[in-house]
Amino acid sequence: MKRSLVPYLIGLFPLAMMVVFFLAPLAFMIVVSFYERDPLGFYKVSFVWDNYAKFFSSFYYTISMRSLWSASLGALVVVLLAFPAMYIIVDMHRRWQLFWVILLLSLMCLSEVIIGFAWLILFSESSGIPKFLGWVGLWENPRSLSPSFGAMLIGFITLGFSLVALMFYPQMAQRDRSIEEAALTLGTPPARVFYKVVLPNFTPAIVSSVATMFVYFLGVFVMPTMLGRPQDWNMTVIITDKAVGDANMPLGAALSVIMLLFTLLIIGGLMLASRKREASS
Amino acid sequence: MSLRKTFTLVASCAALTGSGVFAEEITVSAWGGFFEETLKEVIYPGFTEETGITVRSIAQPADQAWLTQLTNAARAKKAPADLSLVADEVFVRGQSINLWANLNADNIPNTQTLLDGFTKTSDNGNLNAVGALSWFTTFVTNTDTVAEAPTSWADLWTRDWDGKLGLTSNANSGLMEATALTFFGSYDVMETREGLEKVIAKIAELKPQVQLWYRDEGQFQQSLEAGELVGGLYYHDVTMLSAMDGLPVVSTFPREGGILGDAYWIVPRDSKNIEAAEKFINYMIRPDVQAEMARNLGVAPVAKRDAMDLTDEEFASVGSSGTPIRSQTHIHLREGDWLSDKYLEMISQ
């Protein structure tokens, strides 16, 4: 009798962690999203749909589409860059491999604000890349490169690059190279081997890292405010403005719940699609 | 054994909390950055010297964010600070939900030398806030890139700024009021939503000229001093002090007036040190301390002019003689959510 209880008790641990750190705050957020906004104070306990209704004004709708666009573009670009980079790194000499891994790890300990400020200086016309280009004569009238969508995207990539690269590292270093070697000895050009052998083997890993980065970039706050134009501000910025700036917790909570639903839909769709492809192939 | 340990623990805890109440220390919060640092270094030591009450100075975030924190803390019956510096609008919002403690006016006799209107009472006559300082928001420019200082708020629209202006991203910076006064003759246009939309549409014309819609004041100041931005809306006091440090910036009062804001000292309802806080307020509004604040912080005093020993030159440097532009707090309170949505929509589209 005692024995059969043990697995259940072990199973209780992750459940308790989920409840404490995720489900309870989430439940509270959902409850608050139905509260009534009190413009002078904080909120009144009640059950209203007003906060959700607000989302369907064109403004919030545009902002959410914008967040989805910048997060998905950022996720795609960062994976497109990190995947080949890691592919090259794992084939290096052990010492260089270690160097790159340590460098990538140390990149991860930089805070978003520090990275943002570093890019801000690099993009500024008085001290950064534009100044340099003007000095060597490549840019006649140098101007700041930020705030702009491109600057924000570069901020995204700096944030996510090391994360994605390190996600690929173990799997890529330990992959079975015999298939590639077979393809090569049979006369397939290296580029074709990469597309036809390596990439298909890593499709699930690529899909899941794109999904992870997508979710990560949806929640980024500093990069859009620091490096982006107001046209690039994402839902996270607006939610912060509403919840902290205007003390409108119910609206902030409702917008968060909607973004959560969007995210779940997209990731669910992505996972379903990749599973279907796997099943058919 | 364990009982004794527990006892010692309880005793030391009691001693700790006890020291918070009886050993005279108060926690004072002010807007973070240069402001809070200068108050801590220059103004507070004088108070400690006179009263023996030590001041623990903490930085507070921008108005509304701080109000949110105070409200949350009050729900848990806690006061993050014994005293806070708050703007007019925050004071009214907090008062409407009984966030502020009632002060005993007899303990703050220096209110006699205050300018009119700087003591705020609740509907049933309790003193809730006392004026702390006033500050101007003006038209600031970088002197390296803008040779000729602006003369009117209209210059924002008519001059070519090379797309390098910096404006705040929130609706209650005073820009709406300045726009109303400059282009629509008076604040009356702001009384209706149609009127507010007209004012916002006018500000939208500036969008091609604006490089930075700032929410972080530090970012604006740094960019202006470096010449990344050539001008914008910013605090008169900080700009003036930067200029005195030799940085290429200047603050100009346009002919329609600078934007004047008032700040008050409030005591959060759950503070345990109300008496010490009253002593603190009484010290901070004393004419000689008000004069010191004007000299060191560049803010406009709230004490009567003839009670202070400021020279004409010193007095003129922290303000202007013309009628100032006033934030239309009642409109921002009434239309708050609608207005902030409209404004955000305008700048982010």
UniProtKB/TrEMBL annotation, chain A:
Protein name as catalogued: Spermidine/putrescine transport system permease protein PotB
Keyword presence, Coiled coil: no
Entry keyword annotation includes Cell inner membrane: no
Membrane topology value: Multi-pass membrane protein
Keywords: Cell membrane, Membrane, Transmembrane, Transmembrane helix, Transport
Location in the cell: Cell membrane
Organism the protein comes from: Shimia thalassica
Gene coding for it: potB_1
Similarity remark: Belongs to the binding-protein-dependent transport system permease family. CysTW subfamily.
Automatic annotation (TrEMBL), chain B:
Chief location category: periplasm
Keywords: Periplasm, Signal, Transport
Cellular component per GO, a single term: outer membrane-bounded periplasmic space
Any one GO biological process: polyamine transport
Entry's localization field: Periplasm
Gene3D superfamilies assigned to the protein according to its UniProt record, in alphabetical order: Periplasmic binding protein-like II (3.40.190.10)
Pfam families attached to this UniProt entry: SBP_bac_8
One GO MF term: polyamine binding
InterPro entries (UniProt xref): SBP, Sperm_putr-bd
Residues in the signal sequence: 1-23
UniProt key word Transport: yes
Family: Belongs to the bacterial solute-binding protein 1 family.
PANTHER family: THIAMINE-BINDING PERIPLASMIC PROTEIN, THIAMINE-BINDING PERIPLASMIC PROTEIN-RELATED
Name recorded for this polypeptide: Spermidine/putrescine-binding periplasmic protein
